Structure prediction request, 1506 residues.
Amino acid sequence: MSESYVKRLFTILLDAVTDKDPQVQEQVCGALCALGESQPEEALRACEEHLRLHDKLAHPYRTMILRVMETVVSSHLGELDKGLARASILLASSEMTKVKELVCDWQQAASNVLVALGKRFISSVMEEILSKFQPGVLPHHFVVQTLANLSVSNVFGVVPFLTSILSTMLPMLSAAKPDSMRVVFCCALQRFSESTLEYLADLDQAPDPTVRKDAFATDIFSAYDILFHHWLQSREAKLRLAVVEALGPMSHLLPSEKLEEQLPKLLPGVLGLYKKHAETVHVSRSLGQILEAAASVGSRTLDVQLDSLLAALHAQICVPVESSSPLVMSNQKEVLRCFTVLACCSPDRLLAFLLPKLDTSNERTRVGTLQVVRHIINSAAAQMEVKQPFILSSMKLPLLDTNSKVKRAVVQVISAMAHHGYLEQPGGEAMIEYIVQQCALPPEAEPQKLGANSEALAADSVRAISVSTLYLVSTTVDRMGDVLWPYLFEFLVPVRFTGALTPLCRSLVHLAQKRQEAGAHALLIQYNGNVTLPSPYAMATRLLAVSSSPYLGDGRGAASLRLLSVLHRDIHPMLGQRWATAIPLLLEHLDGYTEETLSRKEWEEKLLMFLRDTLAVVSDNTWICQLSLEMCKQLPSYNGTPLEKNFLYKCIGTTLGAASSKEVVRKHLQELLETARYQEESEREGLACCFGICASSHLDDTLAQLEDFVKSDVFRKSAGIFNIFKDRSENEVEKVKSALILCYGHVAARAPRELLLARVESDIFRNMSQCFSTKVLGIKVETKDLGLRLCLAQSVCMASQAVRSSSHGSSFQLLRKPELVAQMMEFIKAEPSDSLRTPMRKKAMLACTYLASLEPALEGQAQADLIHSCLHSIMAVLPEPEGVDSHQEPLYLDTMQALKDLLTSLLQRNMTPQGLQVMVEHLSPWIKSPRGHERVRALGLSACLLQHFLKHLHISVPEIVSVLCSKLQETHGEHVLQAAQHSVYVLAARHHAAVVSSLLGSPLPFDSHTCTLWRALAVEPGLATQVLGLLLEKMSGDVPFKESRAFLLSSAPDRVATLPPLAATCALYEVASAPASGPAVLELYPQLFAALLLRVSCTVGVQLPRNLQAKERKSASSGLASRSLEPCSSAVDALQAVLLRGGNDDVVQRMELEGGWQLLRTSAGHEEGVTRLASAMAKFAGPRLPLMMKALFATQSSVYEMQRVSSTAFLAELLSSNTVNDLMLLESLLDNLLARQKDTCARVRRLVLRGLANVASGSPDKVRAHGPQLLTAMIGGLDDGDDPHSLVALEAMVGLARLLDLVEAWDLRSVLLHVAIRIRPFFDSEKVEFRSASIRLFGHLNKACQGDCEDVFLEQLVGGLAPLLLHLQDPQPPVAAACRFALRMCGPNLECEELAAIFQKHLQEGRGLHFGEFLNTTCKHLMHHFPDLLGRLLSTSLFYFKSSWEDIRAAAPMLTGFLALHVEAERRPQVDLEQLLAALQLLLKDPAPAVRVKAAETLGRLVKFA
Prediction:
């Protein structure tokens, strides 16, 4: 390819640089760089020439071209010859200095070219730059900037020049007046100093190892003098910062004596800048460099300046740090670097300055000081090692600070101390305790709900950082193992560290595992007289108790159980094997739930089972007694956490139950009774649970201990009583009684059933009564304490249930039963009759329910009184006002349920009609009550009792109905309607036609009474069949609608429903809705289904008559309308009713789920609705299809087009199910559909094709037999009509795609070429459906002839390849997906394994496609295996340069570019470069930026032809 071609390529791209779109500009530059990769010298020459010839080109575009030059130079620096490099240097120099004014982007780009070239051609670059850096003349800004950057990029090349550069520069400094020039001189001096220091540091690799620091000293000092004494005083902040940034590295090059001489002025001068600048990071960085320089020469001035340095630096570190400010953070790092230098030089004075500041109460001062202390602990570890005791002692006051920011800083200091051995010193334990205290802080509210600087946010951070620190110190600092173990155990039991339990347990588990791996002693904890460590009993109690609330404190349940697991030997030597199985199961249970879903009751039971197993394995009475003692000892610790205390009570009961020492059991029970906090309801419950659990093993001892306590002074009212409760008030005594009564209830519930009956009267119920009743001077006084009453009712329930569940409970005679029932009745009567505020009624009724089931039976009057009292207590309660948010509703429902349970329990004892009659008589006054809520409640109870009676006795319903009917005669209204129903039924039995006709004359919409009468006709199956037959005739015998124009000029007439079919449809719905109509519906099922489907189809879009529209609107606005009268909706409702009554609920549900019913009602969705209905019927109602199809076949000649469409859609969908084949309906279905091919309606013809194609899904094994018929129909569909976008043709393409894989190869071969040619124009159709269907069919054609592809078809394949590749970028996803499929199918026919493999790998459905990478690889193999295709592919690609779709116009040049990239050398003459370049040049002017981008990218690839 000629040089002129390459030049033209560069010219086109360089001209395109001026594109207005930034992305196009970027791609043009990318293309230039790509060309430059292949032709670097030509690229540089073209850029140089373009800039030279286009002198007026605006500087933004010049900047882009210069950046291209920099990229090419950087990539190919080693390939450039000196001449070209020299030309580029001259150009860049000229561009950089063309204008005196600063145009930063342009001049910086030119400078960058010089810097890039300077890495190899330093002499030429320096020669050019120094020619513009003459003595006595102030140079261009960017000349100095370039020298500065060159010195950094090529240290060894520039440093030898520096002495002459500095000698030239120094006089210029005085002449430089503009601040911008002074700034760039400062920048240059900074870079020169940095590069010199780097040169000297790598002197062994330098070209001139004789260079010494003192060679620069004089010039640097002269420059320093100007910068420090003159420029630093400037008012311009930018200049001052530039000066101070330069002074840092310059200080390292000053002679030692000069530096020492200047420090007294230099340090204050730099420190003074802190007050002048808000952003101080540059000052701090420079100060750090100066301090390092001073320290390196052993300066004595530092000692003199130390106080002012420390004060200034400390002030900087105490500035509050905003996490969002990188500059402030960077400044702090530089300040801390300064402190490191001072710590190494003067550790004593530094600490003498810092440590007293820890005693201040100022937050910022203390936080800043702590930051410095932490830093020097880490960065000056050697110097601080001997100072550890002083630093530790200075932390006393900060440890007491409650400020959250201070706490964070303290934790960070302690973390640093841990890494450097501080915590091993005396006082280290206080630091560890502090960390644990912070871990125990309560978690704060969600941070996002609080202000950014709020104290709460900081507190949350304190806890989080403390938890993290404790774990990291435990797991990553090896030397801390002996410090933390076993010391951390001391924090497990004290309540104030509860919040820290999870991190403590995690750390201890890790430490324990490390000790086990190291082969530690069998017992991990060696007490060695250490009395502060908790005992094994204390640890086991604590860890088990807190596990009952497992998700609190970041999951302390799991953490506690894991610690228990690793300590199994220390708890007891025999527990290892059992816990190794039990604890993982508990942890697994926790993993399966969350705090919201875990059942606490179930979890506590699992833990108690774990405890019981543990006690059984240990089986050591001494150990068990010691554990129970520890549990009792820890009880007061949980006063603030009632749930955990309640659980601990259960643990005590379980442990005492396992103890064999009766003395210990009684002693502990006595202590629990004496020390319990009876005022707390949860504690009373816990104590009772404890006694109940204990009683399961020690019933006699538990009862004896309770009785001893009952007899104690607490219950005596005379003076001088209350020996152990002297300060208790009467209210407190009631709470004690409540607890004791509950204890008896739980004892009864848990007692061994074989022992219970002998003690329930004498020991349990007797003592309950004694605790409850109070006698003054021998007279019984009723208590008013609600809690005490509730406890008695609950305990009576528990004891009664226990008696009933015992083996002899059914025959046991409870002599106290009347007394207990009477007591409960008193409770019920004492409640206010008009309101419900407490659960007293509910609990008393439950107690009576359980008592009622025990012997002896209640006497008649006692039972009547009980029922009367209970009904009166509930029925009269006033309902909550409507609209009021009632909190009493759950209580009312529970109480009403208790009443139902009581009444059914009483009825159960007399399950006879007489027994039911008695109950109804009790309810009768309430049923007749004038108050509605009382009648509703009474009827509800009646229904409940009746259901119970029927369920348990199975007696004749007519008998019950006759009784109820006789009672209902007293109620007006309802019996009239029933009589009417009966009368209609009798009449219709003899005169059904007249009755139906008469009812159809009722006004629409039917009122509720009419609807009820229609349903009465369904009672008897024979009558119902006759009525449905008549309604079918009425519905189908008249025209469904009449057409009329509302306005003379309206385009389409309105369709208005006729009334007789509409009334018949509504009546049919009512009859079919009656459950009794089932047999009749089944008998007429095919006719009903077909008629209603056709009724639905011909009422879509049909309106109601105007008079009915008004009535419909009125009833809708009043909220009275239950169903729509709209013609189509009423037909759909009737169809649903028939399906439901015919037993096809699953069809109705499937349609509901898929939205099918709604689709049926709309013109747009009706066809799809019918399809879904057919699918559901085939799936769930297969046996009914033959007769239904017969009914639908007759609609082929219907005058209503919509009926023909609906029936065809239904029949077509049936073919997609194998059911029609199983029922041998396939042949008749195909014949019927083929007969409809010539229908005048295109929708019918389209649906016929869809049905024929459905054979592929429903009966694929039958396709071969019918192949010629099916293919002929489809090809006929392809040629249907003259419309280029015929929907029939679209259906034919979709159908062919489904059938091709199944027909005989011979049948297919005869039509293959015709189909391929016919569908090719659709590839570029403007309609997405046609593009998608035709391309997918093309794929199926390829799939069908794989391995046997004739040359004529191969020609079609090759012709379609480029369109398929380009349509992968089609804006419509279905088209792109079709292209993926088609290309995968084309692959094997191309007879190129590599291409087939690429198509299979990259074009799988659902996989992301990197189009550029795929197209590149595809073109590579196309050009390698099919080089002859180049011309055709390029011409097709050029055709798509004019595509109407932007994405495809963008893809077309990509295809062109990749083909050109991979074309073999001998084939390149086939490419018409002139045509190609012209087309791409035209694309560079495309309105779409994305297209221009790809055009530019392709131009970059055409370098192959160079």
